[in-house]
Design goal:
Elements: H1 8-18, E1 27-34, E2 37-44, H2 50-60, H3 74-81, E3 87-90, H4 93-102, E4 105-109, E5 115-118, H5 148-158, E6 164-171, E7 177-184, H6 190-202, H7 212-219, E8 232-234, H8 237-245, E9 249-253, E10 259-262, H9 280-310, H10 312-318, H11 328-351, H12 354-374, H13 380-395, H14 399-436, H15 455-462
Antiparallel strand pairs: 1-2, 2-4, 3-5, 4-5, 6-7, 7-9, 8-10, 9-10
Helix pairs in contact: 5-8, 9-10, 9-11, 9-13, 9-14, 11-12, 11-13
């Protein structure tokens, strides 16, 4: 720790060498006189509430506050002369650097090796609104935003427990991004918490460029053959609070409108808050539909390709194709062409403006499908099966999970097209191995509650039980 100097001019010189003063226009400074004592204030324009600072400066320079005209002791001065609640003392430059760059401002006073930090920060932010990727027909319409303090407030508003804790860690040698560990004391796994603390403090990284996504890759390094997500993320406060009350840990990254949930299970990607805003019977039905969408999404196109190309008699009996004279290479080309076109179409529609995405999804789908058939790039049946696969993709609550399944499906199409039945079996085996070996933070099981088997927990995941049966005392914990 680098201590402050007792001389104000030395502290000002050190501050100018540490911060780009006056080169950077957003750094603002003030020379102050607190009675006969000199002071120097530093803050960042846009990060400070000017109306609050004006009141603080007005009080500090009020003659009634400085009747003795001198400052004898810093702690007593702060406690008796500064009415602002979020004020604290620091005696080292590391705290000052971290605080000023995060938003609080600092006041140096001549003759003291301590400085006063004023947390008058304010950040530009968007309104709290429902996330587009996790919408529900009923229920809360708020969602996480890019400001960490707002996100912690959204959680604290729902969990008013004194055991709810937010531990903050700085990550990144350049960005110094604030990362908060949220948990409920007595419910979270202490060993996993300690492992997470040590991991975050030992990360050697310059910046978290993509927020939670960058941190996810640092916490759980994945191989290229692991496309499924290793950490569950949510943008809904009600979902995050539900996991916290079950003993999970939430990781909040500043400047990111999503929260990471630890540890992770593959079954987390099959759940949606929509189930709990409907009756138990309706919620269970739609949850079952989503479970069935996973094997359909993964296997429908590869199985169709396998049967139509390598078992044409079975295809004729099942009437999978109305055009019976299509050769195998043509069917293979059609399958890959349709997969590529639908992926391109879905990607373009997702990035287009909201004013056009609805029209693009309807008109574009009709035009592209009709032209693809006329140009012999696809057949009507293959378009139907591919569109059904796309519908199962859209039904999954997690986009990351759906994208991972899409990579597996494309891999199965390649192995099936090359090797037929054996190619399909080998591809499916490799996909299974890849899913089973997907890494999870803390060494937990990716297939809990199947492995290790927990009958009660599995029943809770498969069926939407009434609320009175799912209170914290009866909710199983993946610990």
């Amino acid at each position: 720790m680098t201590p402050l100097s007792i001389h104000l001019e030395e502290n000002i010189a050190h501050a100018k060498s540490l911060f780009p003063i006056p080169k950077s226009f957003d750094f603002i400074t003030r020379d102050l006189y607190l009675g006969s004592t000199k002071g120097y204030w530093i803050g960042i324009n846009g990060f400070c509430k000017l109306e609050v600072l004006q009141l603080i400066f007005s009080d500090l320079q009020n003659p009634l506050y400085m009747q003795d005209n001198t400052i004898e002791e810093m702690t007593r001065y702060m406690n008796t002369r500064i009415g602002y609640a979020q004020a604290s003392l620091t005696d080292n430059w590391e705290d000052i650097e971290r605080s000023v760059l995060s938003g609080p401002s600092v006041l140096f006073i001549d003759g003291f090796q301590q400085a006063i930090l004023f947390d008058v920060r304010t950040y530009p932010t968007r309104s709290v609104e429902e996330p587009e990727t996790e919408q529900v027909t009923n229920g809360a319409r708020d969602g996480f935003v890019e400001t960490m303090l707002f996100n912690t407030n959204l959680i604290r508003r729902r969990i008013r427990s004194p055991k709810l804790t937010f531990e903050i860690v700085s990550v990144g040698s350049i960005s110094k991004t604030d990362v908060a560990i949220a948990y409920v004391g007595g419910l979270a796994d202490e060993k996993l918490l300690e492992q997470l603390r040590q991991k975050l403090q030992s990360l050697k990284v310059t910046t978290l460029t993509m927020g939670t996504r960058s941190l996810e890759e640092l916490l759980v390094p994945e191989k290229w053959y692991h496309p499924l997500p290793s950490i569950h993320r949510t943008q809904r406060p009600d979902v995050a609070c539900s996991f916290l009350t079950e003993g999970y840990i939430a990781v909040i990254v500043d400047n990111t409108p999503s929260v990471m949930i630890l540890p992770c299970s593959i079954f987390q990607f099959t759940q949606t808050p929509e189930d709990y805003y409907k009756s138990p019977v309706v919620g269970t039905y739609f949850r079952t539909v989503r479970f069935l969408c996973i094997p359909v999404n993964l296997l429908l196109m590869p199985v169709f390709l396998l049967i139509t190309v390598y078992y044409p008699q079975v295809s004729d009996n099942l009437r999978l194709l109305s055009t019976q004279d299509l050769p195998g290479p043509t069917i293979i080309f059609y399958c890959f062409a349709v997969e590529f076109l639908l992926d391109l179409f879905k990607y373009s529609a997702s990035l287009s403006s909201g004013r056009f995405s609805g029209s693009l999804s309807i008109i574009g789908g009709l035009i592209i499908g009709d032209i693809a058939v006329d140009l012999h790039w696809a057949s009507v049946e293959i378009l139907f099966y591919a569109a059904l696969t796309l519908l199962t993709t859209l039904s999954l609550s997690s986009i990351d999970f759906a994208d991972g399944l899409r990579i597996y499906r494309f891999f199965l199409l390649i192995t099936t097209a090359i090797g037929g039945t054996w190619g399909f079996v080998i591809g499916l085996t490799l996909v299974s191995v890849s899913i089973i070996t997907t890494p999870v933070f803390g060494g937990k099981s990716y297939f809990w509650p199947l492995v290790p088997f927990d009958r009660h927990a599995l029943g809770t995941l498969l069926f939407r039980h009434p609320t009175y049966k799912e209170q914290p005392g009866k909710i199983p914990r993946h610990l």
